[in-house]
Every structure is written in C-alpha cells, then in structure tokens.
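Worked Example 4.2. Read the sequence first, then its structure tokens.
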Amino acid sequence: MPKVSDADFIQLVETHGPTKAAGKMGLNVRGVFERRARLEAKLGRQIKAPDYQGVNTRHAIHHPNWLTLDLPNGIALAGGDAHYWPNRISTAHRAFCHFAKELQPKAIFDTGDSVDGAQISRHAPIGWENRPTVEAELEATKERKLEVERAAPNAKRYWCLGNHDSRFETRLATVAPEYARIHGFHLKDHMPYWRPCWAVLVNDDVVIKHRLKGGVHATHNNTLSSGKSIFTGHLHSLKVTPYSDYNGTRFGGDCGTLADPYGPQFEDYTEQSPLNWRSGFLVLTFHKGKLLWPEVVHVIGEGEVEFRGKVIRV
C-alpha cells in the first residue's frame, strides 16, 4: 500500500472511523489508533470519528485525550496499577495515602488500572478461579480513592485510564450498547473527583500516561521517542531512567504498582513465576517550572517503605 499522508489519514478517520479507515489503508486498527494519537499530540486537537447517533456506541464512550497542567512549583505524586481488590489494602496504597497527607501535593496522578476487571477480562478463566464481582471491585476502588482524596483534599487529581480500566466500558459497549451515555454506565461516573484522560501534559515538557513502549528498556525508550520526560505504569517495574542530549536531561519513569506483586489479582495468570515488579510510586518535584530528579518510594516489607535513605512505617 502507498504511504498515506497525514491529511488523507485524518480525512479517512474522520469520515469512516478507525476500523473502516484501517481496512482502506491496509493497516491494523491498533496502528491507526497509535498514529491518530501521535497526530493529535502534534496538532493539539482531537481527530474525531463520525457520530453515528448512538448506532455505533464505541464512539459514545469518550475521555479527553489530553489534559494540561501548569505546575511551576510544588510536589506531585504519581502511582497506579493498583488493581484494587476487595478487603485488601496494600502497603503501597497506605504509603501513598501517608505521603499524600504529609506532603500535601499540588497534583496526584493515577497512572491507570485502578480496576482490575477480573470477571470481565478478555482472557478465559483459569481452572475454577474465584474472581470478585464487578460490583465488589468497583466498591473497593471507590473506597481506596476516597482515602487518597481525604489525605490531600486540595490536590488536583488526574486518572490516566489504563487497559484494565477500559474493560468496564468495553464490556458494556459489547453486551449492552443501548445503555451508552446513561449515568453510571461509565467508569468515570463512579469516581467524580478524579479527572479521567488518556494523558496529562505538565508544564509542556512532562507527560503522564498509562503506557507507551514495552519491555525492560521501556523507560529509556519512552523518553527517547517522546522527546519529553514521561512517566507511565503498566509494567509495574518502578524505576527512573535519565536521558541526556543537547537539550538537557529528561527522565523516563515507571510508577510501579500500588498492589502487592504477588497478590491475589495476579497469582493465577502469572502462574507464581518470579516477577520483575516492584511495589511503590514516584514523587515528582517541580522548581520554577523544571522537573527535578524524580524520587522513588519503594515497599521493602509489610508496612514499610524506603524513601531518601529512611525506612518509614505506614
């Protein structure tokens, strides 16, 4: 297939939608979504699929692509991949609330996958798994998020939706599309004090989103390919990688997981294999609009985290 120009690509997506446009261009749908996201970032506007007046409800489920935040001075917390589970509160979550209360950050970023969506996963059940109901998961997520809200009531709160979060609405769009746009049938309806989005742009040079590249070198590749400091979740690896060039030093960071890596959320599909995952989150400090070296809060044991060379009980 000949290469499609940006102008023709936009016209095809806005006329036919991503799925049909992919067929016309000889691409897979994922490639269309990725290119659309890059163009939206470049152009500073949304590339919208056509409105089918509710016939195709996939387009009725919408979240802002980009949110922006000016944070010249202050602290922000970035953590996610909590996969909140009923009747289970992890050390990392308790630490996140502790730091939110102690530091009173200007902003809190949830990097996605607050909801696990175990019963509505696209993966088949393993054996006779005892998965919590959607209702139980949703109630647990609301409780945990409320604890964060109470710890730092004045912080701006952003929720960069993850692939597990999207299971909630994808399931509804598949089996009950007639309920689109009715309050309560969208995940964001249940967490009204968190601003949902796919990505947040801070001070025009720091990006927070759920995922970008994969693999063990994701943090390096993320900042290399984006040209910005970028903090993601998804891989649960909890680390910060600096990258320097003629433009200065920027950072790629993985915010780890607020869950226990060997918790019940993961024990079946990981088959009890060793996991290169770490429980914790990141502290981001901004000074005169510039991001200082990001700091890691790392869980070292039940009820204990390390930060700046000290062990803190939570």
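Now turn to a second chain, presented in exactly the same format:
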Amino acid sequence: MTMVINQQRLQKRALGDLSKRARGGIFIYVLVWMIIAISHQLPEVLPVLFYFNMSILLAVAGVRLLHLYMHTRPPELSVLFMTDWLVYTILFAALHWGLMAAWILFDDNAVDIRNLMIVATAGIAIGGATTLSISTRIRIFYPVLMFCPGILVLIYQGSSDGWILAGLIALALIFVHSTTKIANGDYWEAITNQVVAEDRANLMEQLSITDQLTQLNNRLYFDKKFDKEWNRCSRMKIPLSVLLMDIDNFKEINDTYGHLFGDECLQLIASTISSELLRASDCVARYGGEEFVALLPNTAESETRAIAEKLVRAVSAVSSKLEGKEIQITCSIGGATTSPNYQEDREYLIKQADIALYQAKNNGRNQYQPFVMESSAAM
C-alpha cells in the first residue's frame, strides 16, 4: 500500500515539475515562426503556408494554456489524465513543427528561410528534449518527431549536401537521446530519494508522538498540543477544558489477571475514548500508566460534564473476557475548565483536573467529578 501511495506522489510531483518546465514553451513555437515568417514576408509570399501553420500553432498554445489553467484550479483531475494531456499536446506540437520544417526543406518557394528553419528546429528540439526530459515519452519521441521528417526529406532529395546534413542531424538526435537519458535517470532518482526521505521523516515523527501500546497520542504530543491550544483559546477568549481519566482498580486487574490482560484493557479503553471524542479539535492521549487525558478546546463547563459522563458510561459498558470469565472495567474522571490567559500558569489547569480525579476516586469511582474551588464548596 505504501509503494502505491509513493508512486502516486511521485507522478503528481513529476506532473507539477513538468508543467512548470513546459510553461516557457507554450508560445515559443508561435514566436519563432512569426519571427522567421515575417522577416521574409511570408504572409505575402506564401500566405497559405503562413496562416495554416499559425492557426495550428495558436490552437496548440490554447490547449496548453487550458491545461495550465486546469492544473492550478480545483477540483484536481487525475494525475494520469493531466500528464497524458500535457505529454501528447507537446508531442503533437513537435510533430507539427517537424512536418512544417520538412515541408520548408522540400518546397523550393521557401528556400529563403530553410537555414533559419534548420537552426530554429535544432534549437527547439534540443532545448525542449533536455528541459522536458523528466518525461520518458517526451525524451524519446520529442526530438524524433522534430528531426526525422526533415532527415527523410533530405535523404529523398539525394544531394550530397543533403546527405551530409541528414547525417549531422541524425548524430544530433543520437546525442540528445544519450544525454536526456542520463538527465531522466538523475531526476527520478532524486525525487524518489526525496519522497522516501519525507516518508521516513513522517514515520519517525509519528512514532515520536504515538503511544505504541494504545496507538493514541503520547504525553509529548499532548504537552505540545496543550501549549498551542492554551495560546489559541487565550487569544480568542474561549474556554478550554481538560479531562483526566484513570482506570479503576487497575493495579488489582494487573496483579490478578496479568500484565497482558492489563494491556488489553488499556487498548480497549483507548479505543472507546477515541471513538467517543469525534470533534477534530479534541485531543486524547495516554498520559501515563493507566491514565488518559482529553483536551477539549472551546468547551464550557456544562459541555465538559456531558462529555465526561458520556465517557464514564461508555467505559463502564466495556468488558473483557479471560478464560471464559467476563471482567468489568470502569473509570473515574476528573475535569477542569478555565478561560486561558497568557499570564496564568497553564499547568494549574492540569492540577485542577488531577484534584477532581482524586475526588472522584474517593467518592466511589466510576464517576465524573468536576473541579470545585474550596471557597465555592464552602458556600
């Protein structure tokens, strides 16, 4: 599965790079043709040749512009479709230019622009094949479509100069193929190594913030998330709540049924808690041992109570079997809510939730207890 995802990422990155490299060539054919043709009064001398080729070149440029527009606008079309669209449009432009150059070599009426056309064709073919060599199809077929029609015409004409020129063009074609093959290989090796490095870095980061037993976020991740949400809630002037959860009588479960069963209980509780906290902004983590913590941004005290009591009920509905015996699992939860302030000690909110958890344990377990200030309790 990972390899499939990597291939998709590679193809998408290659499409982006190819699109960027190809942007400069959208109007190059039009501009070069106009310079050659207008400098020799081709619109007056050979109007059919001039306007026919100009219309095709402008149409191809329009298709290329549409591709560029679609590539940068949502919704994204499939990478394969967008790649084929760009590649075949570029190859069509190469074929048209190659046939146009061959016709100019063949037509005696266009003798005045032959040398310019040969030079322009060589420059566009070599530059295009080199710049766009990240595409194997373009690397192979682009210079062939540019050069081969002219080579065939030169061979057909049968003059000694034509044979020599055809041979030189063929040597240039071979040279372009050999150099672009190296460039193609270097490019794909480079982006493959980059994607692999990114995957490894992401994996290492994920491992560093994930509790391996429960697959929840770990204490390190929670601490960073807590700092971030404290600052955000303080800036937005919205409440922030914390729930500390502890599995009841977990030491007795471990001592009686063994640590493997205890690990199974932790996994069951982790799955239950994470399935109950569905908001994207909520964060649940293993806090240590049999303790879990939930961070609830923009959650008032009444909402926090409702969430915590729902968690107590959900955990109490969890049971596990060991050797045919059903073991009931419960938890106690302590919660605290505050309106964060940059100047306050954010750790005090955790201490309040911990005090409330201790009260829930003392009150008989399997319940939720919100933090209550001593002065409020006395009243």
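Notes for the reader: The beta strands are 240-247, 283-288, 291-297, 319-322, 325-328, 331-338, 368-370. The first strand starts at residue 240 and ends at 247.
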